[in-house]
Amino acid sequence: PVGVLAVVGRPNVGKSTLVNRILGRKAAVVENKPGVTRDRVSYEANWNGSDFLVVDTGGWEAGVEGIDSEVANQAEIAVELADAVLLVVDAQTGLTDMDQRMVRMLRKSKKPVTVAVNKLDDVRDFAEASDFWRLGMGEPYPISAMHGKGVGDLLDACMTML
Ligand code: GDP
Ligand code: MG
């Protein structure tokens, strides 16, 4: 059996960029505007000799009707089917209500969660991730998905959940 890791978070936080970084290739679609990944897509991945499935999802938008509620639904389905969850938040926008609502959904799911604080492109800013302890989801891992910084430590943490 292969563990399944669902990557969730608000639109535009860098989920698809992180999935590409994990895969080491451009497989997940990255766009400069929110909400491009509308569905959920699984990819076979490997970290330190362990195979797992990584699931990219559309941005989760709580309480929004129409297409965005569909996106929210896909993220919830992905979480339901996953063994562990990687919650991506954005250091450049900071903690938002949407992040907090997503955390409530994740708590209900009872799945193990690791928090990645993305867009910390300069390692000298990595300490800013500590603000996300407020989410109450354990240690926030600073990363730059775009530049590949911090992703190794993050994946080490994720693998302990799978
Ligand atoms: P998603 O909607 O959560 O899947 O986000 P995407 O992966 O599509 O990325 C949204 C935007 O954020 C794109 O313009 C990315 O280039 C940008 N982005 C993603 N990761 C980083 C990062 O580590 N640093 C910076 N500066 N931008 C990033
Ligand atoms: Mg995406």
TrEMBL record:
Domain called EngA-type G: residue spans: 3-162
Top-rank taxon: Bacteria
Protein residues bound to GTP 1: 9-16, 56-60, 118-121
Subcellular location field: Cytoplasm
Transmembrane region(s): none
UniProt subunit comment: Associates with the 50S ribosomal subunit.
Family of this protein: Belongs to the cytidylate kinase family. Type 1 subfamily. Belongs to the TRAFAC class TrmE-Era-EngA-EngB-Septin-like GTPase superfamily. EngA (Der) GTPase family.
Biological role: GTPase that plays an essential role in the late steps of ribosome biogenesis.
Name the record gives this protein: Multifunctional fusion protein
Gene field: der
